[in-house]
Here is the input.
Amino acid sequence: MSTRLGQLDGLRGIAALVVVAYHYTTRFDERFAHTQVLPFELSWGSLGVELFFVISGFVIFMTLDRSRTPGDFAVSRFSRLFPTYWAAMLITWCVITLADVPGTTRTVRDLLWNISMLGGSLGARPIDGAYWSLEIELFFYAWMLLVAAFGLPQRGQLWLQLWLAGSVASGLSARLGGPKLPYIVHHVSLMTWIGWFALGMLAYLWKRDGRPGRASVITLVLALAAIGAQMGPGMALFALGCFAAVAAAGLGRLRGVDARVLLWLGALSYPLYLVHQEVGMVSMVLLQRAGMAPTLSIAVAFLVALGLATALHHGVELPVMQALRGAWKRRRLALPAGEAPNQVRAPAMGLRWPRTALAMVLLLATFTGVSHRALSAERIARARDDATLEPVNALAAPRAGADCGADERPPLVVMVLGQSNAASRTRADTPSAAVRIVQDGRCWLAADPLPGTSGGSASIWTALSAELTTRLPQRTPVFAPLAVGATSMRQWTEPGPMREAFLQHLRAIRAGGLLPQVVAWQQGEADMREGTEARHYQAGLAVLRRDLDAAGIRAPLLVARSTYCRMAGSGAIGRAIDRRFVREPIDRVWPGPDTDRLGDDYRYDRCHFDARGREAAARAWADVIVPLADRFQP
Here is the structure.
């Protein structure tokens, strides 16, 4: 490899390092939350992907320029990408399946659909979150085949300038509230990303042709304008730096990036990119769960990913790529029967190019169209599921209205929110006594199953009422419940029937005038099983707090750790709860009890509390509420 291309490899090594550092620090924290606050982060490391796209524009345009036939280009790209991708995908799937970390597991169906490298577009979940960029690369390759098929690179840069102008117009229209391109058109035509690839192509043209002319300057301006329109002016400035670095590396003038360690990382960059994210993050989850410090777990995960990447590079990438390219070269140069050796010529680009390239573009467009339908169907099904909530119990033949507390025994009003373990889905040894509840602005006596909850059996709150009565004889426990089984944080905080029911609950309580002094949030099992990211759960807690404030409810929101359901370990949601109170505290969002410590021995179905678990959960809530009772005045 020449020094000039070696410097591009050095840039690849830098891009790979910053992407890995971003995923292991900032991105891991967003998804799972480190058990301790890290002394450093690398939130800008995600920009390494954009640098990869610029380098790809350079290398792919160079490869296309040197290819004699469509087969040359297709075999070059296939041998480079797919064998290593398949091996890395299989390794990743095996690791995440065996580890069984909530939010990372994938089905065999997901594995099979991802063979095409377009699994995300076909409605399947990607085996690794980093694979999204591979689909972008495939579309770019297809367009480059089509461009070369019609000889456009030999006719100047007008074709590229028009493409970039379309990206500028698309971005500005979206930013100014104008019409937007249909998703499939925007996605297949690479409107978001063509500016980055164009910078790499332009860097190659400058290397190949020497000093830039007026057309190249226009292309550069349009590429930066396209990136600015699609992503903002700050990204355009960063893109200019990427272009300068790639152009200098292509000319062999970027000193320092051809250090041996960077060249080594550059050679490993593709397999490292393929295996580092999910394998590394699962490793960190398991290591931190076992008590290892986050910084040490990052180092161990990086070494694991580096070892796998090295094995893939030497065991799959190099030998398979050489074998496939060698076989193609021998086939292409094979002599037809009766032809003399001096008659053999490599076929030049001809009429087969447009047909082959157009077929590839149409195939990828078809995949994307199918994906759009699949994702639309998934969204419709999701909306249908959201619209079908478990019905809540009505106020069943209450005894006469109850006294919610006089001056000598002021009420302690507890608003109850959450899912099934907050609802009437637990068990009790004996029928529970009636408790005071607030509904429709009045105070009533009601027994399990409590009004406002789903389920048909006992609840934590009737047990808590007895516990609070014993520990706080000077107060009258009153409950305002709304708890629906299987509901996720998303359903409580995003538009839909659950959120509307929640907001109506707040309005009714405010209209009744008996405002709660405590808000008990017992939820998290659905989000643990869905793999909700830590940052999204944290954001949901902030939304709940704002909703309470908007309703005039200033009571503290006590957040229980309630994520245990047929699976040990609370994962991202539990750590998100912990971190919410340490690193990014919200006013009046306080820690509640840890009910995850009540494992299978306290649950009749490994998820919902049995009679023993119900009593233990009620005591845990009382342990949190009683010491703070003096603050909870009506």
Notes: Confidence is low (pLDDT under 50) at residues 337-352. The longest helix spans residues 294-332.
